[in-house]
Specification:
hydrolase; 7-stranded mixed sheet; 261 residues; disordered N terminus; 9 helices; alpha/beta; binds magnesium ion; single chain; disordered C terminus; binds guanosine-5'-triphosphate
């Protein structure tokens, strides 16, 4: 299990934009910065329980498209060229710091093999983000992403889930081959309302940027949900008990004596 602390000093929007790993049309959120309410809440240390939260992220897609390698490249900075099928599910914890606030992702690596699918699908529930993976060198794996999305959404609320469509093994495709499949992938991502990324676990291209993006968007969604939930109460406000406000000890004794009457 991964316990490294990934500081995110560079998650401000400008940074994403300068790297620009995804096309604008395929971005879920094209704004350049974190929501201003989120930034203010973080500056004022008023993010409620977000700092204690662990966000569940599920990674789905056909067998051998590279789900496990993608996660291992990010969490362990390793790459294994030998294929070892995931049996059921596996998970990694990754800790981040976003805008100064600790935030954790629980990455659920699921099996793509048909015979393990029913075990894996029991872990789909309660995901905050769904990462649907395909191999950019395998058109069929892109076609199958619709089915993976449908299955993942049976267990989750589509209105609150962040979706990512990720093409892997970019290192294996020529620019001409890649641009062909990219067109279809971008179209499909738009249809799914997912954000499209292309990565390589072998070279590491875009892997960190991608997971930073997942962490940042999940974090932002969490803070916004916390701010909504709080309603009139201001998130992070401290309820102060002064020594002169009331004698809590006397009160509790009174209560006790009442109940014994
Ligand atoms: N060249 C290249 N090979 C990759 C890349 N990612 C994964 N592979 C290879 O593809 C094969 C399958 O990778 P896995 O990550 O195990 O695939 P998976 O999607 O987890 O497969 P299941 O667990 O069966 O669902 C392995 O042989 C990897 O070495 C990549 O970015 N580039
Ligand atoms: Mg696997």
């Amino acid at each position: 299990m991964c316990s490294c602390w990934n500081a995110l000093p560079h998650t401000e929007g400008q940074h994403f934009e300068s790297r620009h790993p995804f096309t604008k049309e395929a971005a879920l959120h094209t704004k350049n910065e974190f929501n201003s309410r989120v930034k203010t809440a973080c500056q004022e240390h008023k993010t409620g329980t977000v700092g204690f939260k662990i966000s569940k992220v599920i990674v789905v897609g056909d067998l051998a498209v590279g789900k496990t390698c993608l996660i291992n490249r990010f969490c362990k900075d390793t790459f294994d060229k030998n294929y070892k099928a995931t049996i059921g599910v596996d998970f990694e914890m990754e800790r981040f710091e976003v805008l100064g606030v600790p935030f954790s992702l629980q990455l659920w690596d699921t099996a793509g093999q048909e015979r393990f699918k029913c075990i894996a699908s029991t872990y789909y529930r309660g995901a905050q983000a769904v990462i649907i993976v395909f191999d950019v060198n395998d058109v069929a794996s892109l076609d199958h992403t619709r089915q993976w999305l449908q299955d993942a959404m049976k267990e989750n609320d589509p209105s609150s889930v962040l979706l990512f469509l990720v093409g892997t093994k970019k290192d294996l495709s020529s620019p001409a081959q890649y641009s062909q499949i990219e067109q279809d992938a971008v179209k499909l991502a738009e249809e799914m309302k997912a954000e499209y990324w292309a990565v390589s676990a072998l070279s590491g291209e875009n892997v960190r940027e991608f997971f930073f993006r997942v962490a940042s968007l999940s974090f932002e969604a969490n803070v916004l949900a916390e701010l909504e939930k709080s309603g009139s109460r201001r998130v992070g406000d401290v309820v102060r008990i002064h020594s002169n406000s009331s004698n809590v000890y006397t009160m509790s004794r009174k209560k006790q004596s009442n109940c014994c009457k």
